Amino acid sequence: MLYRAAGQRQSFTVEVCVIDKNDNVPSFTAVSMRGSVQLGLLKGIPFMRVEASDRDDRNTAHADLRFLLMDQTPRIPAAHMFSIDTVNGEVSLTEDGASTLDPEMCGRYKLLVMVKDMAGKANAFFSTGTVTVEVTGNTWASPDPVRLQENLPGPYPIPISQVTSS
Ligand SMILES: [Ca+2]
Ligand SMILES: [Ca+2]
């Protein structure tokens, strides 16, 4: 800054300190996200990641984001099949999820996820998004399984099919 007075020249250094305000709500990169999980995946191993952004200063808590899993639809075979990493948004199976996942019982889940700034504190801004998770069978399964009824009453052997010739 240059200051002139009565023919004198003086210079001042003005330090401008910009303090960021938390004036941006974090949001998911896509409101609707998709992923797929394969039968047989172990618990805690991420199969997808949700992403979000916040236009506040990254070096402040105003853009320090946390992820939360709010709801799972449907809640079968277990109510909490999935887990989201609070910090990096990676989605994985819980222990219940890994042990009960069954594409024949439920082949698609909808997850309601939330992103919060302020490191997830109570005064945080937040927004929500949905994740559709498709469940796929494992690739090493026989493509055409032969199904036999369990506990067939005897006596054995029981004819399953008969070939006749004329
Ligand atoms: Ca700001
Ligand atoms: Ca913010």
UniProtKB/TrEMBL annotation:
<dbReference type="InterPro" id="IPR015919">
    <property type="entry name" value="Cadherin-like_sf"/>
</dbReference>
<dbReference type="Pfam" id="PF00028">
    <property type="entry name" value="Cadherin"/>
</dbReference>
<dbReference type="GO" id="GO:0000902">
    <property type="term" value="P:cell morphogenesis"/>
</dbReference>
<dbReference type="GO" id="GO:0005912">
    <property type="term" value="C:adherens junction"/>
</dbReference>
<keyword id="KW-0472">Membrane</keyword>
<dbReference type="InterPro" id="IPR002126">
    <property type="entry name" value="Cadherin-like_dom"/>
</dbReference>
<keyword id="KW-0130">Cell adhesion</keyword>
<keyword id="KW-0106">Calcium</keyword>
<dbReference type="GO" id="GO:0008013">
    <property type="term" value="F:beta-catenin binding"/>
</dbReference>
<protein>
    <recommendedName>
        <fullName>Cadherin domain-containing protein</fullName>
    </recommendedName>
</protein>
<keyword id="KW-0479">Metal-binding</keyword>
<keyword id="KW-0325">Glycoprotein</keyword>
<keyword id="KW-0677">Repeat</keyword>
<dbReference type="InterPro" id="IPR020894">
    <property type="entry name" value="Cadherin_CS"/>
</dbReference>
<dbReference type="GO" id="GO:0016339">
    <property type="term" value="P:calcium-dependent cell-cell adhesion via plasma membrane cell adhesion molecules"/>
</dbReference>
<dbReference type="InterPro" id="IPR039808">
    <property type="entry name" value="Cadherin"/>
</dbReference>
<dbReference type="GO" id="GO:0007156">
    <property type="term" value="P:homophilic cell adhesion via plasma membrane adhesion molecules"/>
</dbReference>
<dbReference type="GO" id="GO:0016342">
    <property type="term" value="C:catenin complex"/>
</dbReference>
<dbReference type="GO" id="GO:0005509">
    <property type="term" value="F:calcium ion binding"/>
</dbReference>
<dbReference type="GO" id="GO:0016477">
    <property type="term" value="P:cell migration"/>
</dbReference>
<dbReference type="GO" id="GO:0044331">
    <property type="term" value="P:cell-cell adhesion mediated by cadherin"/>
</dbReference>
<keyword id="KW-1003">Cell membrane</keyword>
<dbReference type="GO" id="GO:0034332">
    <property type="term" value="P:adherens junction organization"/>
</dbReference>
<dbReference type="GO" id="GO:0045296">
    <property type="term" value="F:cadherin binding"/>
</dbReference>
<dbReference type="GO" id="GO:0007043">
    <property type="term" value="P:cell-cell junction assembly"/>
</dbReference>
<feature type="domain" description="Cadherin">
    <location>
        <begin position="44"/>
        <end position="145"/>
    </location>
</feature>
